[in-house]
Design brief:
heterodimer; A: 217 residues; alpha/beta; four-stranded antiparallel beta sheet; 10 strands
């Protein structure tokens, strides 16, 4: 039985037409199983973010198939893809993307399918955030990123996607966030894309992407 | 904490801009209500609106105050023009003038209304321009385009609702106070119950309606593009 949480089968992404055609992804194949931290390393413009956007169902491949928990995603409507994203996928970015006019607790609870304050408080406690009534701009960037991680976890997703999650952090803060990510990854599954090779030590599976082609280490 | 609570949270965030929009809407509603009420008052005076109450020129003979006023006007006009106009000719003349005034009032009310509408459109356009990234974030969190659109439309109609409520309350207070201070028997500003209720409802609904294009356009934008901002 195939127990992959996410599966890419010969995924291509092409922008432009004919003479201006650019293949951002060229036949990507991989599948990721539960309880692992997976890192895709690659330079800028290699197709990392395109891959992550397709994995998060925010974008669709030009060719090929993406499966989330065994469910094929091509042909799904935008609303269906949104529902899968809310139920099964948590995303964190380089910037925390918290809403500045909501406090930390409100930010964490925003995407909650069934509002449960205790669950949010527990998650924030696990992330060691005590100042839940403060607004994001009153916290450090590292604390904001921890809150973003709590928000990504709020619906207990099967898959966490992280796009350069430590891009705005210094090395000390990077280690704190990556330890948390590693811990979460061993309970669920995390796919990180980054150009920072320091993240290798936290990864269970390492991939390299270059010119739209993916290779497993 | 759901997506719809973002609507009133956003109103608080852009406090000055939204307050200015709300006050403009309130001003528009005040002018509109006064103009429409005056129009209804004149219609009532002309005897063309029997539902609103008030003194009617058609019943002038039965009403001592109106009858005296009519006779005084008749005498004055005849002495100025050196003519022998009857009371009914004077009434027809007054009717014709007042109908023109009503047409003018309707035109003014429509212009005020249009200005108010453009105020809401401008405020929502600015609000949404700043929030393209937020719309992208909401999409990345898994909210559907429909949920995001409804949340933004709710925000627009809240702007209209608050503005209309402020305007309506001020007009009702103003009319009540004024009618107690200046007691005009013939020309009255008539405010039937449907008028303030209709003003609040229509302003809220129209605010959402006129924000629809802007909300639809911004919600349909590519979320990846929005997240890069």
């Amino acid at each position: 039985m195939n127990d992959a949480i996410i599966e890419f089968r010969d995924v291509w992404k092409t922008y432009g037409k004919e003479k201006t055609e650019i293949n951002a992804l060229k036949g990507i194949n991989f599948s990721l199983k539960k309880n692992s931290v997976n890192l895709i390393l690659g330079p800028s413009g290699s197709g990392k973010t395109t891959l992550l956007n397709i994995a998060s169902l925010m974008d669709t491949p030009t060719k090929g198939m993406v499966k989330i928990k065994g469910r094929s995603t091509p042909g799904l409507s935008k609303a269906q893809r949104s529902r899968i994203r809310m139920n099964e996928i948590g995303i964190i970015y380089q910037r925390s993307n918290l809403f500045p006019y909501l406090n930390i607790l409100e930010n964490t609870m925003l995407p909650m399918i069934s509002p449960d304050k205790n669950r949010a408080l527990e998650l924030l406690k696990n992330m060691e955030i005590t100042e839940i009534n403060k607004f994001p701009q009153e916290l450090s960037i590292e604390e904001q990123q921890r809150a973003a991680l709590a928000r990504a976890m709020i619906n207990d997703p099967s898959l966490i996607l992280a796009d350069e999650p430590t891009g705005e952090l210094d090395s000390g803060d990077t280690d704190i966030i990556l330890e948390l990510i590693k811990d979460i990854g061993h309970r669920t599954i995390i796919l990180i894309v980054s150009n920072n090779s320091d993240l290798v030590k936290y990864a269970d599976n390492l991939f390299f992407i270059k010119n739209g082609k993916l290779e497993k280490n | 904490m759901g997506i719809y609570s973002l609507s009133y949270k956003n109103l608080r965030r852009n406090w000055w801009r939204n307050t200015s929009t709300v006050l403009r809407i309130a001003f528009g509603v005040i002018v509109l209500l006064i103009l429409v009420s005056s129009g209804i008052g004149i219609n009532t005076f002309l005897g063309e609106n029997q539902t609103a109450g008030g003194t009617s020129i058609s019943n002038a003979n039965a009403n001592t105050g109106a009858s005296n006023a009519l006779n005084a006007i008749n005498n004055y006009v005849n002495s100025i023009l050196g003519a022998e106009l009857s009371n009914s000719q004077i009434i027809n003349g007054i009717r014709s003038i007042l109908r023109n005034i009503i047409s003018f009032i309707d035109l003014m009310a429509s212009i005020v209304f249009l200005v108010g509408i453009f105020g809401i459109t401008y405020a929502m356009d600015l609000n949404l321009l700043e929030r393209k990234r937020e719309i992208g974030i909401l999409k990345s969190l898994g909210f559907t385009e429909l949920q995001i659109m409804l949340s933004l439309l709710l925000e627009a109609s809240l702007l209209g609702f608050i503005g209309a409520m402020i305007g309506t309350i001020l007009v009702i207070i103003g009319i009540t106070v004024l009618s107690n201070i200046i007691q005009i028997e013939l020309f009255s500003i008539v405010m039937p119950l449907w008028l303030p209720l209709g003003a609040v409802f229509i302003t809220s609904a129209l605010s959402a309606l006129i924000a629809l294009w802007s909300v639809w356009y911004n919600t349909k934008q590519d979320p990846m593009e929005a997240l890069r901002i």
